[in-house]
Specification:
The chain is α/β, with parallel strands linked by helices. Helices cover 33% and strands 17% of the residues. The strands form two sheets. Strands 1-10-9-6-2-3-5 form a seven-stranded parallel beta sheet. Strands 4-8-7 form a three-stranded antiparallel beta sheet. α1 crosses α2. The two termini are 24 Å apart. Bound molecules: 2-amino-2-deoxy-6-O-phosphono-alpha-D-glucopyranose. The site of 2-amino-2-deoxy-6-O-phosphono-alpha-D-glucopyranose has 13 residues, from α5.
Amino acid sequence: MAGPRITVVQDGEELARVAADLVADVISAIPAASIVAATGKTPMGLYAELAARRRAGILDTGAISAVQLDEYLGLEPDDDRSLLGWLQRSFLEPLGVGDDRVLRLPVDGDLDTACAAFDRTVEARGIDLAILGLGPNGHLGFNEPPSDPKSPTRVVELTPITLEANARYWGEGAEVPSEAVTLGMPHLLSARTVVLVIAGGGKRDIARRALTGPIGPEVPASFLQQTDAAVIVDRDAWGEP
Ligand code: GLP
């Protein structure tokens, strides 16, 4: 295993373009690709670039499907702060991916049973492409530390650092839900292609720890060192080359 391929880019525009080239390569090789797409700020430019390519007729997303990466628990079904809502606005609708082509994480009922069933479905289908961001504590999706490569799809208690980081997406005075459900680590680590996008000076320490530090459950993203993930990181997050 050669390990991750790290590309350092100047800014958000270059990050979006370089990442979109990788995503477009996957979709042209596998038109019906099953794709995990993270929410969060970092991949938004990438999704806008993909939508622009689709509008220009140079990217055909007509057969792709999506597998949900993470979701808060305890929300009303129509709460537009849900991660599914964010995914719909930023990725699914702009790329024309209808509800029938989205595998949604379970958010109610017997979650242990439902998460195990979800894992079986995803395992049978496989993930062709996982577009991931890096949490401030090294999480992938909501695989909070400690998470190891076998951590399945499950309910997680969000850590204070994640709650604080996500408060900016949640609205003045509102409390970020403390529980969530996340797609498990095995699906992310075994995706045929992983594209990890990292941006901003606030991610510098965790980016270095995840990509060059000791591999272990305390930094879940560090397990990507054992894969050939494509990492696209901006200069602010990586420092001068
Ligand atoms: C959130 C999400 C992750 C996302 C990460 C980074 O907590 N659960 O899926 O990748 O944080 O977000 P951002 O790109 O906004 O820094």
